[in-house]
Amino acid sequence: MKKEYLILVALILILGAYLLFHKENTNHYVLPDIAKIDISKITGLVIEKKQSPIEFTKKEGTWIVSAKGYLADSSSIEKMLDTLKTLKLSALVSQKEDLKRYQLDDDNRILFKALTGQKIIFEFTMGKTAQSFNHTFVRLKDDKNIYSANGNFRSYFDNPLDDFRDKKVLEFKEESIKQIFIEKNGISKTIILKEGEKDKTSITWTSDDGTPVDTKMISNLMSAISFLKCEKYLDDDFKNKLEKEKPLCKIILKNKNNIELTLFKIDTQDNLIGISSMNEYVFTINQFTGKEILPAIENLLGITKKEKNKD
After folding, report:
1. What is the pLDDT of residues 49-105, one digit of tens each?
2. Could you tell me where in the chain the CATH 2.60.40 domains are found?
3. Coil, strand, or helix at residue 34?
4. Which CATH class is domain 39-164?
5. Does the global pTM surpass 0.85?
6. Rounded Cα–Cα distance for residues 135 and 95 (Å)
7. Which DSSP symbol is given to 292?
8. In the chain, what are the helix, strand and coil shares in percent, each to the nearest 5?
9. What CATH class does 168-308 carry?
């Protein structure tokens, strides 16, 4: 029995030594150190996939989608820049250039470049996200190895051009509005803000004929449009087609300037097509947003169910 114990202890020691030696050998490498990137100096970004590249340029502090001069979505830019700022390798995954396995092959990879002026200051290629969803497989320039990088960030870059555009089409502070004009189904109304003479916090809204207007109805309309984002943009020539169409409804807000929103419904879908004085492009808003705006207008105008069916 004593002999069996000795044999067992010897086996445990041998196994422990093997595992320790194997671990030391498998981790016997030094990960490349990614130099800190000063994102404040970056003036250009490029996303290259199998399709045409998407380029961004910073002009006078504002990011635009270079090809068409579209205003870029600020949150999308921030996510990409933050990825650069915090990019850190966590492990060496493969030295075998097994690119397809990690979606780093030409059909699947995303090459991302950061520029200052015309000079590329950093670039790397990203593949798929690891099964843990905590890491992304990457390759660095002039390095054939495949690494895992901290974070699940591929989705920040893997989007069509339209998703990188700023979708904001209307924005204003509710308290800045002094007058509202609304029109739908041939019915129109001008609503005027009146502040209490002694108590400036006492605010009432009245029609131009002096009839009081429910402030809750006003609040519902303001909430629906004060920070309005579109679903998507339509082709640039679509604005000419709308000149022949009758608007579904129209809103004109007055502060220092006129802010206008005109909505159309020219197809069988529930989405509405819109034009805003704060955005030069024709856009669509989804049915959920439309179902907030239209009832607010109809309630203010006193439009009945029968009149709604004329749309």
Report:
1. 988 899 999 999 999 998 889 999 999 999 999 999 999 999 999 999 889 999 999
2. 39-164, 168-308
3. coil
4. mainly beta
5. no
6. 18
7. H
8. 30, 35, 35
9. mainly beta
